[in-house]
User: Fold this.
Amino acid sequence: MNEISSIIKEKSPLIFAEIQKAKSVLLHCHPSPDPDSVGSALALKSALEQMGKKATVIKGDSQIPRAFLHFPGANEIVEKNYFETDLSQFDLFIILDSGGISMVSVKGEIKFPETLNTIVIDHHSSNTGFAKLNLIDTSSPATSFILFQLFKEWNVKINHDIALNLFMGMYTDTGGFKYPPCDYRILEAATECSKIAPDYTKSLFLMENSQSKEFVYFQAIALGSLETFCNDSIAISAVSYDELQSKNISKEVIGGNEIANILKSVIGWNVGILMTETEKGKVRVNFRSRDGEKYDVSQVAKALGGGGHRAAAGVCILGTIDEAKKMVVEKIKSLYNL
Assistant:
């Protein structure tokens, strides 16, 4: 791996210097964590421990999905969110894969103690930088790829566990190396990781085949609720809290990305959307776009208080399913002139 992003070249020594000053580092997984969130946190924990630092990963607001529990080091994730954590025990908080401060926690207003140094390492275009030091590389398709480059700069030994965690993040956040800005650089990085951790195929199998029957029930309800809007160009599936309760479907088994991806796979349905009322009056919205340049769903999500990428974004809306549908459709109409 010879090519390092210019912004990573610039920020790498600054981040390394802050790490060297720290004794105890806090890491977290963002709400409804994906493999890039979990894998990045676990990989950085291992790298920090190589440097002689004490590093702790907290689960954040959500349970770690069963499909990710086999990731190396997942058994060491602490079952606490940001507000349950004694921040006085840490002098540095490195915030990974979080496009905004709400991705630290949605359980309250985030205020960092003055004694806690903060660093953001992220790739979301919605991130305006909310830490004391920010590395936001929107040219990277995954936070795990940013870490791969940082580890090269810092001469971190990428061992089996680090390689596997980075690979899982890079593979999933690119949709299996399908989504832009995926290019040869991340393929080279993934290839190197696959050589170090050749059992990555087993890890992929476990991740993709660890679903519960409740997850299948959820998919059935979601697809059965399908509606289209804006002259049949926007497809929305919605699942209410009561429907979740009727099948004993917990928040931990809900997979929004798969449904939204199915919807946007249909020719003519330019944006696929899944709405899930995870709690009474709280609707999680997943957006997927067939063409992120023409239909930039990050702008829709951002306008509603969320964020993400051009082709994949999300937001949490307070209100009912019907209210969320109205808000989303109206915002799409105004932004896309539909």
